[in-house]
């Protein structure tokens, strides 16, 4: 069974731009969570989607948003990028009955 | 909010055992997890333990859970150079509606000396 995939793997943007990251979960998994990893703050929860609905949200500004499609693939969007948004963005998927989260390789975003 | 604490660094000699410790705060966590992260990579699930267990063994990995003290440890037997990585302890926090989020420690960087 293929693992969680994320595209693109690397991205360079400038301040003020917006960015969209994509995540394809493990086949059969319907829950997708997003996390931000930075050297200063560590790993922080962004949001979780299940059956195209956002079920849970972390403490991030409204510039961070996401969505999930009917095939469980998810995208997250960051608008009006700031330098501090430079991070590794990790996506994780889990099955309906098992909460264990399996992570993808991440998208490394650099904001200049 | 919930908090997970880990020591930041651990150095061991190849062949020795490594013990990585973690304290957590959410007594309602059903599962506690250990993830491994190698440079430039995502998080690899190593193992997890159900909160009503005291110990779980999986090949070279042993997880000990002291629920009273909210203390979790990961022991790696016969540590190899390939075990050099950052190890994250994580507790799950339920938000209701079947949703769970993970709260991670800052990670312990394990360095294995040949």
Keywords:
heterodimer, A: 112 residues, mainly beta, 4-stranded antiparallel β-sheet, 11 strands, B: 114 residues
Describe the fold and architecture.
The complex is a heterodimer of chains A (112) and B (114). In chain A, 0% of the residues lie in helices and 54% in strands. Chain A has no helices and 11 strands. The mean pLDDT of chain A is 94. Chain B is mostly beta strands and 114 residues long. Classes of the chains: A mainly beta (112), B mainly beta (114). The interface between A and B is medium-sized, with 24 and 24 residues.
Helix content of chain A: under 10%
User: Which of globular, elongated, flat, extended, rod-shaped describes the shape of chain B?
Assistant: globular
Share of residues in helices of chain B: under 10%
The helix-strand sequence of chain A is EEEEEEEEEEE
Terminal CA distance of chain A reads 37 Å
User: Helix and strand string of chain B, N-terminal first?
Assistant: EEEEEEEEEEE
In terms of per-residue confidence, which ranges of chain B show pLDDT below 50 for 5 or more consecutive residues?
A: none
Q: In one word, what is the shape of chain A?
A: globular
Output the radius of gyration of chain B: 14 Å
Give the SSE layout.
The complex is a heterodimer of chains A (112) and B (114).
Chain A: E1 5-7, E2 10-13, E3 19-24, E4 31-38, E5 42-50, E6 53-57, E7 64-68, E8 74-78, E9 87-94, E10 102-103, E11 107-111
Parallel strand pairs in A: 2-11
Antiparallel strand pairs in A: 1-3, 3-8, 4-5, 4-9, 5-6, 7-8, 9-10, 9-11
Chain B: E1 5-6, E2 9-13, E3 18-23, E4 31-37, E5 43-50, E6 55-58, E7 61-66, E8 71-76, E9 85-96, E10 99-104, E11 108-113
Parallel strand pairs in B: 2-11
Antiparallel strand pairs in B: 1-3, 3-8, 4-5, 4-9, 6-7, 7-8, 9-10, 9-11
């Amino acid at each position: 069974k293929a693992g969680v995939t994320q595209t693109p793997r690397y991205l360079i943007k400038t301040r003020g731009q917006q960015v969209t990251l994509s995540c394809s979960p493990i086949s059969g998994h319907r829950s997708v969570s997003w996390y931000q990893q930075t050297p200063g703050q560590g790993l922080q929860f962004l949001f979780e989607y299940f059956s195209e609905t956002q079920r849970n949200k972390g403490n991030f500004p409204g510039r961070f948003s996401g969505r999930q499609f009917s095939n469980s693939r998810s995208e997250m969007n960051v608008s009006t990028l700031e330098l501090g948004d430079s991070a590794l963005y990790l996506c994780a998927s889990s099955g309906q009955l098992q909460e264990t989260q399996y992570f993808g390789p991440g998208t490394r975003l650099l904001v200049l | 909010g919930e908090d997970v604490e880990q020591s930041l660094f651990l150095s061991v000699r190849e062949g020795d055992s490594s013990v990585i410790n973690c304290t957590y705060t959410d007594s309602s966590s059903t599962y506690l997890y250990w993830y491994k992260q190698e440079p430039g990579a995502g998080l690899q699930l190593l193992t997890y333990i159900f909160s009503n267990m005291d110990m779980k063994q999986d090949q070279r990995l042993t997880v000990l859970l002291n629920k009273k003290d909210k203390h979790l440890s990961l022991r790696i037997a016969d540590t190899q150079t390939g075990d050099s990585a950052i190890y994250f302890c994580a507790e799950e926090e339920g938000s209701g509606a079947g949703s769970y989020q993970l709260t991670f420690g800052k990670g312990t960087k394990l360095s294995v000396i040949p």
